Amino acid sequence: MITASCQPFRDLLPAYALEALDPDEIRAVEAHLRTCLDCRACLEEYRAVSEGLLFALPPVAPPPRVRAHLIAQIAASKKPATSAWRTWPIWQLAGGLALAVLLVLNISTIAQLEGLQRQQITLTRQLQASQTALALVAYPEGLKLNVTGQGAAGTLILNPELKSGVLFAWGLATLDEAHTYQVWLIQPDGHRVSGGLFRPEPGLPFVSVVIPSSRPFSDFTGLGVTIEPAGGSPAPTGMRVLGTSF
Q: How many structural domains comprise the chain?
């Protein structure tokens, strides 16, 4: 169980597993680990993940400038005693450069780990959406509707009497951070009700979105998707990119 005293150390455990903390932080973490079984168990999980990623990643050659810099350091160390470089043993220079390369690799590993976590979240959401879609199709009177647009297309799975649907769409452009896609449910009088926001994940062939509603879908006559400012809009303001009628 995470307690208030554990929380500051839980934030440091990933970096501790990668040996990326300063000496004061290392001493503080190790003192806490001596008395906390939960944090020791959590540390072992981080170490297992970091070790697995290091073996999973292809070898990364240091940049050419690192080799050139090392050669320059060696040459400087051979100059007469008047050179300031002679005060630094070559093993210390090589060790420092090796540490710098290791730090770069650790940072790259952390960045790739964060990318894998984002992909896992996206795939989990798509799996949940697919399971919802299968349930709607299996339910009596389930509908499968084509959704069309300019340069994009999709499929809408729903049951008119239920309060959720699933939209599968492909061909949608990747948006910048200032914009998002917003789903609209169209009432018989033309009024639009927001059905949620979504943003396609770069590199994936399609996006799947569960569309919740406080009312049965039989109360609506259609669906549209527009491009809106980040955070969504109370009513459509941007270009419609997808749409269909029920």
A: 3
